[in-house]
Amino acid sequence: MRALTEHLPNHLLVAPVLLPLATAALMLLLGEGRRGLKAMFNVLSTALGLAIAVYLLLSVAQRGAPAAFGVYLPGNWPVPFGIVLVADRLSALMAVLTGCVGLAALLFALARWQHAGVYFHVLFQLQLMGLYGAFLTADLFNLFVFFEVLLAASYGLLLHGGGGERVRAGLHYIAINLVASLLFLIGVAVLYGVTGTLNMADIAQKLPAVPASDRGLLHAGAAILAIAFLAKAGLWPLNFWLPQAYAAASAPAAAVFAILTKVGVYAVLRLWTLCFPADAGASAGFGGGVLVWGGIVTLAFGACGMLASQQLARLAGYSVIASSGTLVATIGFAAPALSGGALFYLASSTLAGCAMFLLVELLERARQVEVGPQQIDDGHHALPAFLDAEPPAGTNLDDNEEALTGRAIPAALVFLGVSFTVCAMVTAGLPPLSGFVAKLAMLSALLDLQAPAAWALFGLLILSGLCAAIALMRVGMRHFWTTQDRPSPRLRVIETLPIAALLAAAVTLVLQGDAMLTYARATAKSLQAPGLYIDAVMGARPRPRDAGSRP
Amino acid sequence: MEIVISIAIGVMASAGVWLVLRPRTFQVLIGLALLSYAVNLFIFSVGSLFVAREPIARPGVAADLVNYTDPLPQSLVLTAIVIGFATTALFLVVLLALRGLSGGDHVDGQEEHP
What we know:
The complex is a heterodimer of chains A (551) and B (114). Helix content of chain A is 71%, strand content 1%. Chain A has 551 residues and is mostly helical. Chain A has one domain (10-376, 410-538). Chain A is globular. Chain B has a single domain (2-50, 69-102), classed as Helix Hairpins, CATH 1.10.287. In chain B, helix 1 (2-20) runs antiparallel to helix 2. The longest helix of chain B is centred in the last third of the chain and has 32 residues, at 71-102.
């Protein structure tokens, strides 16, 4: 028992992967019915996963700057041979974001969407497992496996609810991601052929010693691998599938997808800073220009798309593209101060993106009260028959005609209006919310860089904020101002709760802005010094096999 | 042997790319399958190509690449085959669903209008 409590903190590193897997397996055993029980398991497991992620984050943040790594060897094999899980500041941050987004989407789904298909809860847990695994693993092929787990689950979640529009978008999404996965495999195989290892730290360690004759092959492999990641991150011109797929997905699925693009960004950030730092000799900063300019073009594309889109869901999709463009561009500069701001932006934009996708459905529902119920996603067969169909809207709404100067604003509309405004302010980067703090940190870091690309990004960040503000304001006016006597939409508490919580988290980011920025900057600093990561991973030793201490 | 393997990979990859770019869903499916075969062969070949060498160590023979072929690419291929097979099967289901919903086999769910 003492051994268990002693080793438990160490074993907690693998818990975010095992917990959803076990929950998914358990729910499969439960069969098709018993939605209440499944929902309870799902909520418990997701909340526990979030708690573990927060614990990992706190334990990593507590340690001193140089040694903030938790390394875990799942098979107890010596390091370059077995799979390694690593929780550093970046992984822990991403894991916490995963937990937040997952819990919010799940709570939202409890109201209606869990009834729209059979295996929603199972797919949801597998999605979380893939996400946690991808963020925690330190092995290239294991990363591929977790990518496939999260993609396979996301195929199912995208199709959740059915309907022609979803199947059509899903077909494109699956085809694109299958091709990207094949590119991923080619890149991994080339890197293995050149370096003879799959451990990320070991690859990074061996790269400077690669002979000049193999250098071209190495670069080709790294570039192919990067294409796979960037297609998932939604970099222009690999992102034309994204707005359509995200707009077609059901609201909770789209909310989880808000973090899927960040997985691609994370993989690029992790591998690029690890393999091609400034002191990597002939490969130093390989492909940095592509990242910077690709990110800038993506940001411009996302901003134009936001202005051009008529559907709110597509607008949210383009805002996801704009945020991943910003992130990819800032990665390419390899400047710690800039990356620090970018990581803060990553947290803020993920939370806001998730809240936005959830809000989209509520706003569309508010509109449907007026225009009739069959309008969601061009709807041929779109709206699934919910088991607990709500009473038809508009039945009890005409009873408070008042003779005063105006009508009382219904609480649901107030909630929608306030949360939409907060969400729009975070997305567009208006003061005083977290988007503004993040953009300010990035802009002030860009001023110090003094490069043409830095000026381009500087201007574009401000301009894209303006575009986002215009686009979102237009939507807000259409939904809240131009319709005087629209009946109030019916919202449930369980639907409003996750949105309020996500936005509260975004506000907390500002209130705790100092601590968060310090954390983000420490993360960026440790990312720019890959030697620390390599030493931490390569220095991990398997546990000796004496009978007493093995839990 | 390298030449034969390279030609095989090249032919399958090029046929796969051509088919993936076609507008019919079934052609895309076959293209993806061909591409995944090409990639699997490619992974297999990054280890080392030898005839009649095992990846499993035997007692009494020194465990190095002179006596054995590299076992790791083979296990990677195995994983990649399983994953590729499962995702291709899923794609097939979605293909059939789209066919049922749209009544055609165009990847966009409707024919292009010239």
